[in-house]
Every structure is written in C-alpha cells, then in structure tokens.
Specification:
heterodimer, A: mainly alpha, B: 705 residues, alpha+beta, 8-stranded antiparallel β-sheet, 19 helices, flat
Chain lengths: 387, 705
C-alpha cells in the first residue's frame, strides 16, 4: 500500500476553507452554523433543510431545538462543555463521570439548572454493566465506550443520589454536582476542602478567588491553619490572605462533613463529625476559627462582591445543599452559565458591548424560562449563527 | 498621616476631653494601671440601661418556643425523662430558665441556636422531617427575638456608640501561664525594646548577652533578623560547654527552645537560627532552617559524627514542619534518644539514627550566635521572639507547658462602656503585638455587674478613631449578656498599627450595646466593573478532538468504535485540536486530523454496506483504476457526493462543486498517472477514493466551523 502517496493526496487539498463572512449568511448558512455550533457535528441534509426552513420562517429557536435533538449535542457538545468543570486541571480530556452525566441529564430533561448545585439527583445507564459504584467510575466509562445514546430517556435515567447503592447521603444532604463522586475525587481529596469552594466559584460564578478577593470581609471564620503573620509580616495577612480566606473559609465550612477516601476511592460523608482536614495545623494560629459543624456564611453579601446580586433566602446555612442554593440564586450564577455557553457556541468570550448586552438579555430569559439551559443554547446559538 | 485619619484622631481627642470634662465617664487614655494593676473602675452611668427583663423574656418564650418544646420534647426534657436540661418543663419559668441560661437559643442569629442545630444537623429526635422541624424551631426563636425587640430595633439610636479610649499603657501586662524555667543555662526574652544588646536573663553567670550586629529589637518582644547576627562573647558562651559538655560536670544533654517566625520557606544553608559554633566548618550544635524543614546538628564523641555536627537530623521534607509563621521549636539531645525536634509542642516523629554519645569533644571556644553563622555567611531571616537553653532535655510535658504559655507581651485592656451599659460595665481584651505591623485583640469578655439580658453586638476595634477595614474579627458577634462576666468570642482581631504602640489610641465601636444601637449602613453596592474587551476574535473556530471524531463518524457513517478507528483516535486524541481557537492550530494537529480521516475513509471504502450507502452505484469499486475513473461523469458524481456529504449542500460559505472539482479531478489524475489495468487494479481504485475522502474530511472546510 502506498501510504505516503495516499497521505500526500489527502494533504494536497487540506486548505479548503471557503468560509464566507457570516454577515452575508442566509437561512441555510445560518442553519449549518447553528447545528455545527450546538451539536458539534454537521447536520444531515434533511435536518439542514428543516432548520433552514424554520430560520427562514423566523423561528431560529425552533431550529436550535432541532439541532439539540441530535444525540451529539449531549454526548459531544455538552460533554466537552462540562468536562473541564470536573477536574483541577480544567482539562477537556476526561471520561464521562457522574458529574458530567448529571449535567448532561439535567440539560436533556430541562431540569432547572439552579438545581445543579442542590438536587438529590444522578443519572445512570439503564442496562449497562457494570452498574454504578461509589468506588470507581467504571459504569460511566462503559456508558461512553458502548456509545449509549444519552439522549434516550429509556437508556439514561435519573435516580436519586441518596438512593445510589452505598450512598452515605440523605436526601437533604445531596447537593447536585458538589456531592458527586467525580467532584469529590477532584475537590475533596487531600487539602482542606477549600478547593471545592474555589472550583464552585470558578465553574458557577465564573470567578476564581482573585475575583472574590475582599479584605474588608470579617476574619472570624478564618481557620487556625492560616497564619496571621506569614513570615512575621502581618501586612501580608491583611492585604492578601484575609482577602480570600475571609470569604472562602466562611463558605467552605459547608463541606466539613465531607472527605475523599483515597483508599476506598469514594466520597465519605460523616454527618455530625467534622473531618480532621478542617482542623489541621491548628497551632499555626490557635485563636483562629475552629470548625464545629457544617455552618456556612456568605460574607460576600456585603462588600464589593455584593454586586454579584445574591438573592437566596439566607446568607448562611448548613451543608453544601443550602450553599449551592445560595450560589445558584445569584445573578452572577445566571450570567455565568450564559457566558459559558456563549463562549462554547460563539467561540469567543463576550467581546463587544453588543455581546455583553446579549449575555444580560439571555440571562434574563434563562431566569424567566425556568433556568432552562437548552433555552440558553438556543438563544446564544441564534445570536451567533450570523445574519 | 492622611488628612482623614488626622481629623479622626482630632475628633477622638475632643471626645475624650469633652467626656472627661462632663464627668460622664472616666478612665481615658491616661488612666489605668499600666504596670500590673487593673485600670480604675469605670464611672457610673447616669441612666443605667438594661435589656428586656426576665419577665418580658419569659413572656415571649411562652408564646413562641415553649409550645414547641412542650409538644415535641416533653417526654425526655420535662424533668421526668432522661434529657437535660429541662427545657420542656411544663412550668414555663423553669423552661425559660433552662433554655435561656443554658444558651440554647441565639436571638441574634436564630439559625445558629442549639435548639435548631440539634434538629438540622444532629437529627435529634425530629418529630416530622428534620429540615422542616428545624425551620419551625428557627421561626419560633426569630419570633421570640422580635417580641423582645432584639433584632432591628428597640434600642435607642445614638451616634458614636463607642467605648472609652485607651492606649497600651492603660492596660496591664498579663504574665500568662507559667513557663517551665528550671535548669536554664541561658534565656533571652528580648524585652529591651531598643538598643543593640539583648540580655541573657537566665541568672546563670556569666550572662551570654547578645550583641545585635544587624538584628533589631521588636516592641512586641523579640529580635527581627534581616541581616547580620546576634552573638555572645566567647567567654560568656563557654558556660554552655561547662554545664553541658564538660566531661566531669557537664550534663551531656541539653535543650534549645525558641519562638521563631521564619521569614520565608526559601532560605537554606542551613540558615542558622541558633548556633554554638565557630564557623561553617566547626560547631557544637546548630538549629537551622532549610526551606520547609528544620536541621539539627550536634557534635559528640560518636565516631560517626564529625566536628561539624554532621550528619544532621532533619525533619521530614514532606511534613513541611518549618513554616513562615510564628512557631515554637524545641531541639533536645539526651543520651538515650539523641536528637529530637518538637514543633508547636508536638514531636516531629523524626528519629535520630545516630547513636547518642557524650559531648566531651565539644569546643569550649565556640560562640552562641543567632540569625547567622559566626562567620556571617549563613544568614537566616525572620524573627526570634524568645530563646532558651536548658541543661537537660525537656520532657514532652514541659515542652507543651512552654508552648501553651505562649510568647510576647500580652496586655489586658478594659474598655469602659458604663456610659451605655451601666455602672461597672466594661469589655476586656487580651492585646498583643503579633509582629511589627499589627496588634491582636483577642478573646473579648463583657463584664456587667448590673445588667442582664443586654444585647452586645457587632464590635469593631478602632485605632486613632478609625476602624481598620481588614482584620476585624468581632463584627458578627451578636449575643445577649446573661452573666456578670461573659466571654464574647474565643477569636482575635488582627488590627494594623497606625502610629505605633507608644501612641496608638484604641476604642471599641459597637452597633448594639444594651439599650442603644448605632447600626452601620453598608456602603452602597457599586456596579460590576465594565467588561474589558480584547482585540476582535475569529468568528469561526476549530472543531476540537471530540467534534472532529464525531463529525467524521457522522459524515461517513462509520462507527467511532469500528476497527482501528477507535485505537487510532485514542492514540491521536492528545494531538488533535483541544480548543476552538483558530490561532492555536498547529501543523501537528493537521497531521493528526489527516491520519484519523484516513482511518474513517479506509473503513468507509472497505466496508461494502457503508460504501454502498455513501456512494451508491456511482463507481465500480471492483474495477481497475483505469476503468473506474475513465468517465468524467463518474468522476464528477464521485466528487459531488463527497462535497455534499462533507461540506453540505448549498451552503454558501462552504466550497461548492465547481470549486472542488478541478482540485479533486487533478488529484485523481495524479494518483492514476501511468496506470495500466495491470499495475492499478481495484485496490488502487479504492485507494484513490480513500484519498479523495480523506482530502475532504481533513480539509479546513470540515474541521473549521
């Protein structure tokens, strides 16, 4: 076989790139782009025709709905969107796991997306071997390798997290993705459980700790393991440490009963018993906060980050479920979900005043339409399909 | 000094003068003990205020929480059952007393009440659903608070709800817990405050006073080492040899104790913290720092140990025992266990593998030095707040005792609030200087001999009339005083110094105090900062690895799990594009895209049913290339099919047939050039189609969208 000749033949025309300006696009071009961006793959000729007809009739959202009926919308596009949320490296490479599966299922079933941080919900394969396990990810690897159609409600089904075999959660403990096995492995392993908050902020408020820094927040929840005089210079504490720990330690208390057991490879939940990692290095500053339960307080409700528009019922509570509700009720949460979809579908972060205004508009729609992520995909897709 | 702060100081000064002149309250910045005696008692208030009476509180309790307790908790907590306290007593007076004075409710923050937490977190005998039961109890407590006007009202609005102002000199020094101090050989507390000598106050002659050749004394007690060394004379240092190592009278064991704050975790050398040595090549002992671990060298007559005290005992690197924060570090040496290191009262578990031998070969001519080597070339940076050398190895209990005793100057400061909370009322803090830049205001305790049920809430420590925005630890304190002496918090505020310990004036600001309130209005919420937009970005993007794979599958109909497609994809996945950003595209990614497309096209062409579904009957795949591609119409049909499937039908921005046909037709010519029916059989025919297929699938028209 003349492989070299074959490859040379293939390579000789790789430069086909006649993509025209989207500003001159008609319904067919818009339909093609809409499908490509939402589903990640090109449409069949029949679907392209249907979508083009809908767009020509002024129903771009209906066309987007057609694109979302392609299983690859969930299995490729949404999976790629979510996978970076599930690991510290924020890598898009990763197996399907219970975290990504939960988000995929919620989007498929149009579950209000605020529940992504609060729901007692998981998604599993209906007839896939091996079954779900608290101690490995084999079930989801099998789902993916067997190419189970995740868009099929008969094959990929919702169950309660607290009802999964071996679960240590009560229904009132489960907190959507926060209490999934994959999130536990990534964010509860080792450390002090602060990482779970950091990545909750990154993924659901679109803000890493630098953007939540505020040295005016009270320091009464900063734990004993944080030096008030690092290197003998307390100015560092005032200007750097307290700015993050003041708010972060106050919310991370919600995770006090959670731990990742690297031996069993599972999440541990010990209601009523604070995990030792919340109490380590107590001699660093003995007069710091001592965690006694899973209380959390949102100190960002005042100060510079009050403009995230926290709208939850309580500024404090117990455990990750109510904390997840506090995050999800904020305006920042709504805007963040739209921003993520915008970048995923439009291939750019908001880059103009028009983009920014559209994100605010779609966030309004998101909130008024039952926090439907499908609607966000459709609205954003229509905005970016060219005109 | 800023103008604002200066003005504030002026206001404070005026307030103090005015208050003193009016006789409303005494004390002030010039009163107090300052050297061991408590400050004078506050003056009586003209109008002793109080919170709600017990009768008012009980009445509210009876309407709100008591019914729940008697309904759901009565079987255990009414007095006859096993539970204590008897919060569910049918006698409301008993139930109130047991509930309130055992602090089972927090009217300032009902959700944190013990009665709520037992239901919500401990699932303690819920009567229905724990979450809703806890909510019901919380609502009842909130109603109780409302009935006694605890939250958001009831108090008289006032401006300047603050305590008397004090300076550090108005407090009195708290000696703290006793240190173990027997068998000292040398002891440095660094209390001198200024000068160039740190005194050895062990009382063991000769005093090994340290000449500060670079280090400076700290007002909070200690020396700060940025450069140079603190060094004792050879004559004075020799007492260590005499008492520890001398063959006839030496103890052959010792302890080095220090409270230190390493400036960083980068320094190495080891950087000398405390050493008894002559230079980098000869020492009796040294405690040093190397990044995250402590290093302890000791010379002995053990032939395995050289004159430099090596090999050293090091704390395990992975444990990161050395931190850039204040630590209590103790190094002991005894004939049974050799060298041991304790950090913050805890043995580091690093066992000395060198057998302990006597110290007879110590050099009497070495010198005690801190912060550096005698030769001045092993600089350590940080703060030494206290150092001691003992004649014996301290026991673990003695080490723990000295760790618990703490370090530095602690001052009890009593801020008079009698003006607001009645005669004799004051709030006490344990104040210290954590370093050169901040004070610690710790463990506030409220004393009120005459007031009960007085609300005390939202405290801030002010310095020179200004409440620093950072480091405040008591702004969430919100409680009701039910005892004459009541701790408010076990925590500390970290308060930045302003004019320094000699001049700073402190005041405690309250939002709620007894019957008065001065709630702070949060500053207005600013808008989110405007978005920052970068340069315009491409409106098109790459398909990433997964999209490419699935797109090729969708176009060809080949399963991604088919044959070698899956293994090829798995091998290429990290080489394929990972993001949509066109600007990241690299030639290696194009090679990977092409290799993957070849697998798909190979599977497509070599699988009859897939081939038939894709191409129909437009080409005879069993014919030699010379026959199969002899017809222009056949070629065009083949190209048309590839264009339609790979690029789409009538999509204006995609290449159309007229653009692709010349290129693909030329490709066919090239791949069949010189062919005869014998040399280019049916396999060549399929190869040509695979090439065309791959050229389409791997082109930018397919991988860019």
């Amino acid at each position: 076989m003349r492989v070299a000749e074959w490859i040379a033949g293939a390579l000789c025309v790789v430069a086909f790139c006649a993509i025209a300006s989207p500003s001159l696009a008609g319904p067919r071009e818009q339909a093609r782009r809409l499908h490509d961006r939402i589903a990640g793959i090109p449409p069949s000729a029949a679907v392209l025709d249907q979508m083009a007809s809908l767009i020509a009739a002024g129903d771009a959202l209906g066309a987007a709905d057609l694109a979302m009926q392609n299983p690859q919308f969930l299995m490729t596009s949404v999976k790629n969107l979510v996978t970076p949320w599930t690991n510290v490296e924020r890598s898009v490479h990763g197996d399907l796991n219970d975290y990504t599966a939960l988000v995929i299922g919620m989007i498929r079933d149009d579950v209000p997306f605020t529940e992504v941080l609060t729901a007692d919900l998981a998604y599993v394969g209906a007839n896939v071997t091996p079954g779900y396990s608290q101690t490995d990810n084999d079930h989801y690897v099998a789902l993916e390798s067997q190419r189970v159609d995740l868009s099929n409600p008969a094959l990929f089904v919702p169950v309660a997290q607290s009802a999964l075999p071996g679960s240590q959660l009560q229904p009132g403990d489960a907190a959507g993705v926060i209490t999934t096995r994959a999130a536990g492995e990534a964010f509860f392993s080792a450390g002090t459980n602060r990482r779970m908050w950091r990545f909750t902020g990154i993924n659901y408020l679109c803000r890493d700790m630098e953007l939540l820094h505020d040295i005016t927040r009270p320091v009464d929840r900063i734990r004993q393991d944080v030096s008030r005089s690092p290197g003998g210079d307390s100015r560092l504490f005032h200007n750097a440490c307290s700015g993050c720990h003041g708010g972060m330690d106050a919310v991370a208390g919600a995770f006090a009963y959670f731990e990742w057991d690297a031996t069993q490879m599972r999440v541990l939940h010990t209601p009523g018993t604070v995990q030792p990692k919340h109490l380590i290095n107590a001699s660093t500053f003995p007069f710091g906060f001592v965690t006694v339960d899973n209380r959390w307080d949102n100190y960002w409700r005042e100060g510079a980050h009050a403009n995230l528009d926290w709208r939850g019922p309580d500024a404090g509570g117990y455990g990750p479920k109510s904390l997840g509700g506090e995050v999800a009720a904020s305006r920042a949460f709504s805007v963040c979900q739209v921003e993520k979809v915008f970048q995923h579908v439009c291939f750019r972060p908001p880059n103009s005043n028009a983009d920014a205004a559209e994100i605010e508009r779609v966030a309004d729609v998101f909130e008024s339409q039952g926090y439907s992520m499908k609607r966000v995909f459709a609205e954003v897709g229509a905005f970016c399909m060219g005109s | 000094m800023t103008g604002t702060k200066g003005s504030s100081r002026f206001v404070v000064a005026l307030l103090v003068l005015f208050a003193t002149a009016c006789g409303d309250y005494g004390g002030g910045s010039s009163g107090g003990g300052g050297s061991g005696a408590p400050p004078s008692a506050p003056n009586p208030s003209p109008v002793p205020p109080s919170g709600p009476s017990d009768a008012e509180m009980q009445a509210a309790f009876e309407q709100t929480v008591h019914p729940l307790l008697t309904q759901y908790c009565v079987s255990c907590h009414a007095g006859a059952g096993p539970g204590t306290p008897h919060i569910a007593s049918l006698d409301p007076a008993v139930g109130y007393t047991e509930t309130w004075y055992n602090q089972k409710v927090n009217l300032g923050n009902p959700s944190t009440s013990r009665l709520v937490r037992r239901l919500a977190a401990d699932f303690h005998h819920c009567w229905n659903d724990c979450t809703s039961d806890a909510a019901e109890m919380q609502a009842a407590i909130a109603q109780w608070a409302a009935l006694v006007n605890f939250s958001g009202g009831g108090g008289q609005n006032v401006q300047g709800l603050v305590s008397e102002s004090l300076t550090l000199a108005d407090g009195f020094e708290d000696e703290g817990a006793d240190r173990y101090s027997q068998n000292l050989v040398a002891f440095w507390e660094f209390k001198e405050g200024s000068g160039t000598v740190a005194l050895d106050t062990s009382g063991v002659a000769p005093a090994a006073d340290l000449a500060l050749e670079g280090p400076t004394l700290m007002s909070s007690y200690g020396i700060r080492v940025e450069q140079g060394r603190a060094i004792a004379s050879q004559v004075a240092s020799q007492k260590l040899y005499d008492l520890l190592a001398e063959p006839r009278n030496g103890s052959q064991q010792y302890t080095v104790e220090a409270w230190i704050a390493n400036a960083n975790t980068d320094q190495e050398g080891p950087a000398r913290i405390i050493s008894y040595s002559a230079g980098t090549g000869s020492r009796n002992f040294t405690l040093g720092q190397v990044t995250y671990y402590y290093n302890f060298r000791n010379r002995s007559v053990n032939p395995e140990v050289n004159g430099n005290g090596s090999p050293a005992l090091q704390t395990a690197d992975a444990d990161r025992d050395a931190q850039a924060t204040l630590q209590h570090v103790v190094a002991t040496y005894d004939p049974y266990r050799g060298r041991r290191i304790y950090v913050n009262g805890v043995f580091t578990d690093d066992v000395d593998e060198i057998e302990a031998f006597p110290l007879w070969n110590w050099s009497p001519s070495h010198r005690i030095v801190m912060g550096n080597e005698v030769s001045n070339d092993r600089q350590w940076q940080g703060a030494i707040r206290l150092a001691a050398i003992y004649r014996y190895a301290l026991t673990e209990a003695q080490i723990l005792q000295n760790f618990a005793a703490g370090v530095g100057r602690r001052i009890l400061m009593r801020f008079d609030v009698s003006r607001w909370a009645g005669a004799g009322a004051y709030i006490e803090f344990v104040v210290s200087e954590i370093d050169d830049h901040s004070y610690l205001f710790c463990q506030p305790t409220f004393h009120s001999p005459n007031v009960t049920n007085a609300r005390v809430g939202k405290l801030r420590v002010m310095v020179n009339g200004v409440a620093p925005v950072s480091g405040q630890g008591f702004v969430n304190v919100d409680t009701v005083v039910t005892a004459t002496t009541q701790p408010l918090s076990p925590l500390c505020s970290v308060i930045l110094k302003d004019a320094g310990p000699q001049a700073d004036v402190f005041t405690i600001d309250f939002e709620y105090l007894a019957n008065f309130q001065s709630p702070k209005t949060p500053p207005p919420i600013g808008p989110l900062p405007p978005r920052q937009f970068g340069a315009p970005l491409p409106s098109e993007g790459l398909r990433d690895f997964r999209r490419i794979n699935e797109s090729m599958a969708a176009v060809t109909g080949v399963s991604p799990n088919a044959g070698t497609v899956r293994s090829t994809y798995d091998g290429l996945v990290k080489q394929l594009p990972v993001t949509f950003d066109l600007r990241t595209f690299a030639s290696a990614q194009q090679v990977a895209v092409t290799k993957l497309s070849l697998e798909y096209c190979d599977a497509l062409v070599e699988t009859p049913n897939l081939r038939s579904a894709f191409f129909g009957n437009i080409l005879d795949f069993t014919a030699p290339a010379t026959t199969a591609f002899s017809s222009g119409a056949t070629r065009d049909a083949l190209i048309q099919r590839l264009v339609d499937r790979a690029f789409g039908v009538n999509v204006a921005y995609q290449p159309d047939f007229t653009e692709v046909q010349p290129v693909f037709d030329g490709l066919i010519d090239d791949l069949t050039a010189g062919c005869t029916p014998t040399t280019c059989d049916a396999e060549r025919t399929r190869t040509v189609v695979k090439s065309l297929c791959s050229a389409a699938l791997a082109s930018a028209a397919a991988s860019v969208h």
